[in-house]
Amino acid sequence: MGACNGNCGSCAGCGRALELTGPEIDFLKLLGQYAFLPVARKREDPAPVYPEGENREEASRVLLCLEKKGLICLDFDAPLRGVPEEAYEGYPIRGSMALTARGQTVLELMEYQGVQEG
User: Which tens digits make up the pLDDT trace of 81-110?
Assistant: First the structure.
């Protein structure tokens, strides 16, 4: 294998630093308030969507990045009950998302140490 370039998504990179965007931090904090949140997608499009969010395109990018970094888990086999049906309009595949153990640790460290703007 070649040298680590810090982009594998499953580690913190050679420098052990994890860089998060503002929207990624905001979404981690939202997931920290709830055990699970709804996620959906279209049959022909594997991109995840947060059906209760306002900017679904941006949320989709954020979810993909957080999943690649190992901070959240998207599970399309476990839909949530009680989510308003109109939120899922146009998205037949429904599931849930939650923080991973790594995501929970990162969130706790951010709360304990604060977040440094890069």
Answer: 888 888 888 899 999 999 999 999 999 988
Distance CA 74, CA 47 (A): 11
Residue from 94, 110, 99, 108 nearest 34 by CA: 99
Q: Look at the pTM and tell me if it is higher than 0.85.
A: no
Alpha carbon distance 118, 115 (integer Å):
9
Q: Are β-strands 37-42 and 45-49 bridged in parallel, bridged antiparallel, or unpaired? A: antiparallel
Indicate if the alpha-carbon torsion angle 115, 73, 64, 54 is positive or negative: negative
DSSP 8-state class, residue 51: T
Q: DSSP secondary structure string, 9-37?
A: SSS-TTTT-----HHHHHHHHHHHHSS-E
